[in-house]
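hiii, so i know i said id send this last week but things got crazy w the move. better late than never?? heres the sequnce for the chain we talked about at the cafe, plus the structure i predicted for it. fair warning i was half asleep when i ran it
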Amino acid sequence: MRSTVVRVWLASFAALFAATVALGPREALAHTGYDHSTPGKSESVDEPPERVDLWFTAALMAGEHQRLWVENEDGEKVASYEGEVAPEEPTKLSVDLPDDLPDGRYTVKWYVRAADGMFAEGAFRFYVGVQPTPAQLEEDAQLVERIAIMDDDGGPNVAAIVAVVVALAVLVVGGAVIVVNRRRAAA
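okay and structure toks below
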């Protein structure tokens, strides 16, 4: 009797989990992050580029303020872009660089909202007119990218909400099965 209850409970859980995955929003499973850029991560270029182009692994949200900026080694902004993603290229952001960009090490940073509603932020470096040292390359490798983060105002986390709903559904179905089995056993 008890093994039947456990089997029914496990089957209910598996069915609910499968339904959640099958019916859930597709874009929530594909958060965006860094794909590639020009100049590339830790790339050294002889001449200052006209701009930085950055592509993401999934589309950015249309109509949202996306942020991309470049800092020099002193942490001063040398270029910044705040605006909407171009509809014809929803995975790309660009920022124009000054014509007189001096030789040195530059950090590209971004804070964007993906089409799935989650935010992503990160950074990488590139070099103009100089070659990075092994120590600088090691520092570059330590730069962190965070994807699927909640927005600044503490908005809802879709993944957490789905997990709570699934857990509650499993508890309700499992409890109902147990109650039904006990009533049958008592009759």
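btw Confidence is low (pLDDT under 50) at residues 21-29. thought thatd interest u
miss u guys!!
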